[in-house]
Amino acid sequence: MQREGERLNAYLRTRSATAESSSLIELSRSAASGRVLLFAHPVGGSLLAYQPLVRRLGDHRCFGIEASSRTLADGGPAESVQELARRYVESLGEDCPEVDVVCGWSFGGALTWEIACLLAARGNRPKVVLLDSTWATGKVPEWTPAEAVQGFLHDALRLSGRDDEVTADTSDEAAAVLDMDPETFAERLEIFAHNRRLVGRWRPTPGDLDVVSVRAVESLISDWHTATTGDVRLHDLPGDHYSLLGDADNVAVIEQIIRDERPVTAPGEPERRAEEREFDASDLHASLAKLVDTPRWRDLVIRARRMDPEAISEAYRELGRRGLLTPDWPRESGGGGMPTRVAIELFEGFCATGLPDLVHALTVQIVGNFVLKSGSDRLKRELLPRISRGEEFSTVLYSEPRAGSDLAALRTRAERRGDRYVLNGVKVFSIYSDLAGSALVAARTGQGGNKYDGITLFVIDLAADGVSVELVETVQRERMCRVRLQDVEAESWRRVGEEGRGWALLDGALAIERTGIDHVVRAARWLNALRGATGLPRDLERLEGQVECATTLARSATEVFLRDDVRAIDTAVAKLYTSETCQQVGHEVLRRWSSLGRASGTDELVHEELFSALTESPGLTLSAGTSEMMLSTISADLKEEFSGRCLGILNRFGGEVADTVLEVLEPVGAGVRVEPLFADSPARRAALAKTLSDLGFDGIERPEDEGGLGLGLTLGCAISLSTGYLGYENAYRPCRPPESGDTSHGCGEPACRLRHAAYVLGLGIGLFRCAWEHACAREQFGRQLVELDALMFPLIRGYAELNALSVRLRELADNVADVDEAAVRRFELVEQDAMVRVVRGAMQVLGAQGITEWSVASRFYMKCAENIGLLDREGTVTDG
Fold it and tell me: Fewest CB within a 10 Å sphere: which of 161, 350, 677, 750?
């Protein structure tokens, strides 16, 4: 029992460490773009009961509402469940995106229903999943203080998996049983007692939301048919109230229920007939695998790579017939209503065969998603189903002669005449306009005082009178086009958004275009072809790791596809890193082309990939916004919120843990005198290790059956990352006993190596922060250093690399059980290479101050010097 009590106690200490923390807790952040899931706390106020379920929902972005002493203090205790829900919803603010699923167990079920009703009133109608929810029986007797203590003790014991009766006459005795400190016990007891009183007065708010009610067969007390006019689906699972989330089989079923938009077949119900069954993700993956594993598909791909229009059209129609192009779109638009993650997996799958990816990127990801979010109802009806079936391609017409990437310099005009517009102008450097049936066009409809005013967006028919498309031959297979618009008519329903307000929409459209997912599928293909042609996989090890980092970053960026509040900054880092990584693969082909281009016996498709890498890579850092534009966009964002952006990287691994480590360890480390500042300090390392132990953080990864929290490597990495961010010695080394005195970076196990990588990453972020602060404060030749692009751009590029490393490291830590040694080594090589550039860029900005012994930056520099080399355990030098 003590072990389970320690687990609960340590967890609550972690969540309560920052007194001013929000009730909203980010439990997990998906590397992909899965749905947003919000958990409501049960009667005790903690979210610990949901941990087994959260771990299974790694492709969802999971938030939780957790009670704290502030819940009772702010405005006084809530007088009803409805009032408590209202406070929580008002506190969400901008911290929580639009919620797709709200879920709650026990008292959390009642709270979930009230939260869902409030969200629905605001236009966000989430799926409601209630797990053996508290029900309004009106039979909650008042407790004496002693009964309240015993009731809380019983609840905590059952939550920890114990069902034996343990009694305690006082709060101190109960706290001792749970191994809680008295202050934490008193806080949680007060929350427990208050929420229990609310249950006695609660009557559900009438609503019309659909409900999925999961009940334990030994409870079966809730009757949601009396609370909602919506559909109520019941799922009864074995066990009692407390074992619902404590049984692995039950948790697996609940996971399926949360994931599945359709009713899960209950025991005893007949399976639906095949013709009635909708395809799920596994059906689609199987369909794709069957399609591409044929000689006919290979022939289509080879012909498509040579720009055979019939082959491109036929290949995409085949994909459309099988529902593989837009599985995440709504069904009324031809999609399957699935998570965007599934769409990205399928896109990567069919593009990995060599099919030209830019067709999909332009048609589906850019134009299709843009119309889906901002187009008129008629435009959606006319265009989107045809795109879903693979019957129509679309392109983008932004760039103009002498304007290039400067969209504010547009000269194409659209004059309104009655219920339609007449467009005139010339567009250049568009891709696939000769194959496309429609195009997203930016044109001026007015002249305001600002050059960004008066821009309007349209989706025009490229077969309309007045449209002429001229091919512009280039060195690459994918041909560019010049499109002339002469008195081209476009009905008003083809306008996207309001007239003259297109600039704001363009910001979001460009963000959709810049996720980099199209770049990384090319990079992977080119790298595979290069590996096959050269037979030198070891020489490409670091580059392969960089492509893996870019792929993870691009996947995470695709969450913007169906968001309404997208800004250019949301994908600027992804565009910069993925395009430059893909271009580096092309440079490796360039370096070897004199021999590769003349090699005989090369497979046709391999040769096409290598030629594509050679000819397409120069344009990757130009199209959809140049690298310099991305650096400027990132720079502007950092000038507003550089400290928050640095902390955002740390919070990716566990916001509450990272915030606690920073708050607690910073004064501890500062309290140990070290001269010079950059010297290694065993005394400081020991003090930091003791503080972590006192917090209970030394057991955050340790399995539950060994007395730890069992919360996983990702939170362990958050501790290492935060320690590095402070510039202190790495005091978190759970793989080594404290008494060993070993000051090395640890053993060779993947988990230990990833912790060390997190520590080094933290050093890099900390050094970046020091350099940026210096650049903001220091002036040279009458200008702040931060305004000197030539000086700052290398540092900003380093910031982008740190972001990419953090996303990939999070993915590796989340899946460490399935990660092989080779993947860890590739990541280490990429991080080592990137960190050298980060250090170089930071020290150039810091100037002479960075190397003085009294400078904090010198501490980061020397810590980097001591630890970067340890990333290459074999001491080898790789390519580039």
Answer: 161
